Amino acid sequence: MQITSDLVKELREKTNAGVMDCKKALAQSKGDLSGAIEILKSQGAAIAQKKAQRATTEGVIFSYIHMGGKIGVLLELNCETDFVARNKGFQELAKDVALQIAGAHPAPLYVSRDEIPLEKVEGWKKEARAEFSGKSPEALEKILEGKLGKHYQEVCLLDQPFIKDPSICIKQLIQSKIAEVGENMVLRRFIRYQLGESL
Hints:
Elements: H1 5-15, H2 19-28, H3 33-51, E1 58-66, E2 71-79, H4 82-85, H5 88-103, H6 118-131, H7 137-155, E3 161-162, E4 165-169, H8 170-181, E5 185-194
Helix pairs in contact: 1-2, 1-3, 2-3, 3-8, 5-8, 6-7
């Protein structure tokens, strides 16, 4: 199939990837747009993995007020340089993540899985083992994996499906921005306030 400029443009609009990356992904997927998107996602994850060890000492503290003052979010999003921190794309990423924290249901409680207290994870496992006690060890292991994945999606911000595009999670959203900008980015912390909610 011929790779047209319209197809490249459409892929760029959907992924924010560079022209040459879009052309290569479309060539690899033989002109299949969804296949090209998957190729670019996996490339973004690989780039993010390479940059993951680089120090992130710059960034922003971003504030967002939602629902006419009923929900407020503060988050810290870090990057490597002040230049990127002031970049419009980085600011938009901070806003998208804040919108996720404010609007996701259930609201996230942790940034990532490693912040969840071990006793909570063990409690989830215990519940699943009790519920599916008659299953074989292999089947139980798969069930546990699925149940834990569901819990992680509910409470971990990085695991949650992005409310603007549920085909990706927040971690993938950040990875795509890392691939686009070429700098490591880390969502350090957040806090969410809801009017009348007890802490």
